[in-house]
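Q: How would the C-alpha cells look for this protein?
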Amino acid sequence: TPYVAEAQIVSGTLAYAMGSGKAIVSTPYWYAAEMLAENRGRLVPFADPEALAGEVLDLLENPTERHAMRKRSYLYMRDAVWAEVARRYLRVFEEARAARAVQPGTPFTFRPLVATLSDLPDINLEHLRRLTDDTGIVQHATFNVPDRRHGYCTDDNARALLFTALAEETLPPESGLAELRSRYLSFLHHAFSEETGRFRNFLSYDKRWLEDQGSEDSHARALWALGVTTRSVPDQGHLSMAAVLFNRAVTAAEHFVHPRAWAFSLVGIDAYLEKFVGDSEAKRVSEHLAERLLHEFALHGTPDWPWPEDVLTYDNAKLPHALLAAGRILRRDDMVHTGLRSLEWLVALQTENGRFSPVGNRGWYARGGPKARFDQQPLEAQSLIDACIAAYGLTGEEKWVDVATLAFHWFLGQNDLNLSMCDLGTGGCYDGLQADGPNLNQGAESTLAWLIALAEMYRLRAGLSMRGLTKAEMTTPSETAQVSRV
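A: Here is the predicted structure in C-alpha cell form.
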C-alpha cells in the first residue's frame, strides 16, 4: 500500500490484507504505522520505489520470515472480523441494558402525551373485541394478533367482566358493551364447578379444562368482578347471574391462604354489599378475611416496612385497597388507618422524579434488597389507581386524586423511559415496560389493565363533577358511599 500522503487514517485494502493473513509492505502513513507495528508488516519511505522493491524481494526470498509476518497480522485482526465485531456490539448492548435496569437514563426532553381529568382519551374497544370470541377473551397476543395457542383463563375473563361493569356509565348502549359482558359472564358460569365450589382457570382453545380447580387468585378475581357487576350493571339478567355466581362462590374464599386472594375477594364483597347491604354471609366472610389480612400487616410490618410480606411482588396496591374497602364496610378505623399508612408508603416507594415507577417483576423488591426496576407491569398502575380512588373516597384528600392521575399517566408516557404503553388507536396496551422499551405484545391482562384504569378515571371525573361539588366538598358522611363507588 504505497500511499504518498502521511495523513491517511484508513485503508480498506490494508485492513482486508491483514485480516486475510497476507505479507504487507507499505509506506508509513498514520494508519499503516499503527497497524503494522510489532513486525506485522514492513514500512518503506515515501516515494522510494527501490526500497519498496527491496522489501518485496527480501520477503519472497525468506519464506520463514514471510509466513511469520502473515501469522502475526492474521492473529492481530481476529478481533476485527465481522462476527467478532457483532458479538462486541451485543456485549455493549447487554451492558447498557443491564445498566438501564438499575438506573434509567436521562429523560428525553420532550413532553409526553398526557391526559388530565378534563381531557381523557376515548375508551376504544377495538383490541378488546379482537381478543374476544364466542367463548370469551383469549389470554395472549403476539404483537396485536390474538395468540390462540394459550387459550383462555378465568383470570382474564373476570378482568374483562370487571371492565364492562365499570364502563357501564361511560359508554353508550350502542357500544356493544352488554354483548361483551354476556360472553364474559357466560365464561365464568361455565368455569364454576358445583362439585368443588371453585372456579377452574385455564381452558384450552379446543375447549378442554386443563385443571379441576383454579388458583385462589383466579377465584378471588372472579368474586371481585361479580361483586362490581352486581353493584353497577342495570341489566337485570346480568345482575341476577352475577349475584347467583357470587353467592355460590363467596364461601370458598374464607379458606384461602394467600393475602392477594383475600384482597381481591374483599374488594368484590365490598362492592356486592353496596347492593345487598343486609347479606350477613358476605359480611361474615368479609370480616373473617379482613381480620386475617390486618393480622398479617401487624405480624410482618415495621415502621419502615409497613407491609404484610417480606417482598413486594405483583398487584401490590390491592392489599391496602382491600383494607380500605373492608374498613369502610365494617366501620373499622384500624383497618382504614393501616390501609392508608401502607398505601402512602407504597406510593412513596414507587414515585421517582415526579413519575410512577412501579416495582418490576424481574426480581421484585425483597425487604433489604434492591428494587427491580423492570419489567414494569400495567397491572401495577391500574391497581394503584383503584386504591387511590378508594382512599380519596374515604378521606376526601385531593392528594389521592393526584396520585391516581400520576399512575394513569404511566400508560401515556410519563414513565422511566418516556414511552407510551398504550395504542390509543385500538385500545390495546403493551405487556410491560422493559429496560429497552415496551414488550410489544398486547395480551389480555395488560389491555384490560389499561381499559379498567381508563374507566376508573372516567368514573372519578364523574364523581368529582357530581352536583358541581369540589373534591374537598365530597367528604360528608352521607356521600361517602357514593364517592367510594367512584
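The mean pLDDT is 93.

The radius of gyration is 32 Å.

Upvote if useful.
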